[in-house]
């Protein structure tokens, strides 16, 4: 779960929090992100671009958990994930205690895809959602009993409520009369 959340939440969130920069904007930032997680930190700008592609596809699929993505965009995301899975295949490892999928070749993309499969098999994948507060897009785990959370934090919920209040106030005041 931690690897998947860290991967998808590596996008630019500076509109909400100035410290949230795109960790995959280039090879240097991507190498830093890899090193922070103890992963092999050899990465180029092309690797960072591939990481952005995987991240955006995963975010689009997670957005469907909120019913928040167009069908065409979802189809594109699923196709990108299929292509990525072909390039980074997973191998079942069977032991006396169970079965797990591991990347057939070393690399973070296979690790992320294996983690997504495990989340799906455990039923936790559907609990990942994207924050509805514009422009946040932060992916979070919905821990509510009925799976109805739509905001990643009380701060985002508060900002969204204030924005809605201002819109209602503006709409109710109508046009100014001279």
From TrEMBL:
Pfam families listed in its UniProt record: ABATE, zf-CGNR
Q: What is this protein's record name?
A: CGNR zinc finger domain-containing protein
Q: Give all residue intervals belonging to the Zinc finger CGNR domain.
A: 127-169
Q: Which Gene3D superfamilies match?
A: Jann2411-like domain (1.10.3300.10)
């Amino acid at each position: 779960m931690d690897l998947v959340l860290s991967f998808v939440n590596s996008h630019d969130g500076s509109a909400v929090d100035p410290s949230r920069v795109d960790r995959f904007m280039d090879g240097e930032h991507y190498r830093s992100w890899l090193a922070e997680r103890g992963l092999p930190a050899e990465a180029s700008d092309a690797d960072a671009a591939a990481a952005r592609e995987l991240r955006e596809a995963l975010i689009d699929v997670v957005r469907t958990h909120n019913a928040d993505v167009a069908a065409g965009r979802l189809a594109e995301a699923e196709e990108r994930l299929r292509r990525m899975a072909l390039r980074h295949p997973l191998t079942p490892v069977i032991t006396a205690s169970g079965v797990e999928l591991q990347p057939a070749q070393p690399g973070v993309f296979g690790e992320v895809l294996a983690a997504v499969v495990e989340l799906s098999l455990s039923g936790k994948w559907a609990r990942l959602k994207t924050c509805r507060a514009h422009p946040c897009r932060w992916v979070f785990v919905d821990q509510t009993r009925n799976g109805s959370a739509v905001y990643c934090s009380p701060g985002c919920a508060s900002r969204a409520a204030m924005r809605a209040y201002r819109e209602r106030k503006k709409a109710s005041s109508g046009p100014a009369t001279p």
